[in-house]
Description:
Blueprint: E1 3-9, E2 18-22, E3 28-31, E4 36-37, E5 47-50, E6 62-64, H1 70-73, H2 76-82, E7 88-90, H3 95-101, E8 109-110, E9 116-118, E10 121-127, E11 136-142, E12 145-150, H4 166-175, E13 179-183, H5 196-209, E14 214-217, H6 223-235, E15 239-243, H7 245-257, E16 281-285, H8 295-300, E17 314-317, H9 326-338, E18 342-344, H10 359-369, E19 373-377, H11 381-393, E20 397-398, E21 405-410, E22 413-420, E23 425-428, E24 434-435, H12 437-449, E25 451-458, E26 470-474, H13 483-495, H14 505-524, E27 529-536
Parallel strand pairs: 3-6, 6-7, 7-8, 12-13, 13-19, 14-16, 14-17, 15-16, 17-18, 19-20, 25-27
Antiparallel strand pairs: 1-2, 1-21, 2-3, 4-5, 5-23, 9-10, 10-11, 11-12, 21-22, 23-24, 25-26
Helix pairs in contact: 4-10, 5-6
Amino acid sequence: MSLTFWPVGGLGEFGANCLVLDVPSGLRVVLDTGVALGTLEEYGVSYEVPDFAALAGQNPALALLTHAHDDHLKGLPFFAGVFPETPLAASPGTWPWIRRLLEEPREGLKLGGAPLHLDGLRVDALPVSHSIPGSVLLRLQTAWGTVMVATDFRLAPSALGETTDREVLARWGKEGVDVLFLDATNALVAEPPPSEEVVAATLAALVAEAPGAVVAVSFASHAGRFFQLVQAAKAAGKVVIPLGRGIEEMLSVQLGQGTFALPPGVVRSPRELARLPREKLVLVVTGSQGEPTSVFPRLAMDELPVFKLAPGDVVIHAARVIPGNEKRLDHIFDHCVRRGARVVTAHEAPTHASGHAPAPELATVLELLRPRWVVPIHGRLRQLSELQRLARAHGARSLVVENGRVFRYGAGVLEETGELRPVGRLLVDADQETLDSAVVWERRAAAKGGVVVAVAAIPSDPKVPLPNPHIECFGLRLPGINRAHLAAELGGFLRQESSPLAKDPENVRAKMQAWLRSELRKRLGKKPRVVALTVEI
Length: 537
């Protein structure tokens, strides 16, 4: 009898974190329901979410949610749509985010304090230091072994003073950990990042010294970073203007939870921007990864009517750059510099401290927990493999697994079963609507090869011959080809047919599309998207 694990997402990638645990008693537990940032943004895809319908063979008895970051939680509406009866368990700090995501009000189980018990499964939750309040580390005890999930945590205190209890980790280690799922995000980071005290002091100095306005770009959910900027603005006699829906949501949740208290008069409404002195402004904005619809890229390109960058302004990037977003952010930083602003990132000053444990902290966790086996999670293969090396150096055995590859633990051995259960991805746009993959494919094809549109007018009088169609090209040049001549050739081709179907709209449309595809491929060596339309006159 073995514990069986099915990684749905998060192994071999950043994002879409989701793990399925099957207990021999028949119990199925899902850990996290995250999304991945889309790699198809230019085609209207905002993010990707696992297709949870692939799990429908066995309904989960419980969904455990470690914290409220998008890459662990944002897929919950899609999961709940497939499994509306599955109970949810999360910390008190995560539940407000769950209620915002789900259309139907839903109560569930609280993680933290007393352990949860369900059909021979015991779940303990340990509050940890991370960049969003309410993050927990999980221990799942069964008759077939003890599993721990340690994702998204630090041993160092957070910006809000949250800590991770090392004594509890040591006690759990003494009680025995068979399989440890451990966060590999910063496994390649050999030196500890700056402390939050250093970050706070750096932000305070930058805000105080800025001759113009300050634009601080941070993760929208990072309540601690926002509070540090508020404290910096207060000390410098300046005011904070939050811009972006994500920050507004964070403030609504955290103020409602009593996470912190804002000093009176420091945080102001965006409506006050026009009448406040520029040198008194500290704008805290969304878009730390350069997301196209967020505030930061629009501000950098003068697309915000309420504020324009000017010489003397300081832009502070107070966030980690998620791998893959470097090029996009470099372009945005250049736009800021063109407008005379100074840009300060974590490369120039300690403006951010990661919420993920670096290698020295991971080593400490391994020493405290002393697991039999370590499965690196939350990273690409390079990060996973480095954490495997670190785990082995601390006496643990380790298995690197990628998404979809089923593995099991039994009799002290963790091994792959050889079974592959791939899970597809749903593509979601900015309006939270699911995009058909065929639509995205068509957009990609149009972007790659351009679009040719041909419109044929079909006379209602059967004696009147078909006129030459009208042709327009988008995103495609026709070197050496005159569009009028091409249209004349196409018209001649259409008029050759004398059958009763010659003027049937569907027949004309199909013939135009086939002829244009063939001719453009022969003449240009390209395969543009061809759209053929007909109108009756």
